[in-house]
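hey so i finally got around to running the thing on that chain from the lab meeting. sorry it took forever, my laptop kept dying and i had to restart like 3 times. anyway pasting the input first so we r on the same page abt which one it is
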Amino acid sequence: MTTLRLNPLDASWLYTESRETPMHVGALMPFRLPDGAPPDLLRRWMADFRQHRKFAPPWNRRLKSHLLLKSPVHYWVEDDDIDLEAHLRHTALPHPGGERELGELIARLHSQPLDLSRPPWECTLIEGLEGGRFAMYIKMHHSLIDGVSGVKLLQRVLATDPAKSLDSPPFWAVGAGPRRPERDTEAPSVSNVLAGVMAALRGQAGTVPQLLLAFGKMLRLTKDVDEDLRIPFGAPGATINGRVRSKRRFATQQFALERLKALATAAGCTINDLVLATCGGALRRFLDDSGDLPEAALTAGIPVSVRPKDDEGTGNAITFIIATLGTDIADPLERLAAVRASVQAAKAHVQSLPRAAMTQYTIALMGPTILALLTGLGGRTRPVFNITISNVPGPDKPLYFRGAELLGTYPVSIVTHGQALNITCHSYAGHMAFGFTGCHATLPHLQRIAVYTGEAFEELERLILAPAKPKPKAKRKTAPRKRSR
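ok and heres what got predicted. didnt touch it at all, straight out
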């Protein structure tokens, strides 16, 4: 039996686990049924799945705890005797199941904590979706694997050629490949930022002067200040920053990448700027509907890839920045301009630091977030920022499972005290999928945020891409004709 001790970051997700804040992440993966699929196709698949009783790491790992000095120390134990029926489920929506019904089902599934006495993951196969579709929902505890890495691992059983995918095994039969040694090539995600923070807690004392200068700028304590720079704890109090309860809400939205790229080119901004501006527009409208819109702008914490000024390598560095969402601005174009300027200022601020100072800067910036997770103080104090918005790139070619085409990957993320809403985007095969995860008690009408996000994007399209109206031609003045007598 193999025993592996958890690293500090993975163990921290266990310490923050509670009924109100279960620390699992998930992925909703809708598929299109293969042409000519029999009505009982998914039932046949389930029967076949049950024959696959060999589990590859990390799907065969369960938690084991030892008491050391009155504090639990958690280990992974590789389990050879796994009850598959406890992890695999088959359900259906009343046909035809739409996006709202699917979102409600995922919200119910995501609200239930995982059984930590077993390998902490579950898979639900969902049929009955409209348009000849079915879906696979997979959730896994954050201590086992983070959401971004989990989606990559799930995609290892998919193929770019539908014919080659016909014999695809279930995902638990395929394990993780060899781990890459460098972290700075990984996707900009919350987990990768926090992992970097935990790994770098040793720090270097020589970075203190640069850190003092960096935070001096953010806190407006020096003369060389960019007014677009947003500061930690500068966010207004908002309804999405209170305590949360156990029940969840989930909604989705999707845009074609061609539309995003065309609009970004025309507006002279990045796709990420558009994502933030549309989310800001949606949140402004949503909060204004209920009379809860703060006068000051909401801010977003954003995992990004940046390269410090002394980094001569080819990789990227992952850090966290804070930017405005422009929720205090009614005009969509002005809001987009404010978001763009804020993101540029935050990136430039971080990139001006040496690599060592940037690492410590990230630790100092994320320290309150880690502390809130570990102590449960979230929702009782002023938020470092109002919401986390992540934009993670994925495969650019269509993928197939047993001949069924994957239509998208919608992240289902974590909600914690102080962060009652999470927005995570994942690009795949020419589309960008948005997953909106929220606390049901705080956001009972979460679906509206997804709808408003679509309408905010369409509004930007109309304003930026609308053809200029031709100027009316001036009427030629002609001299009056003289009447002939």
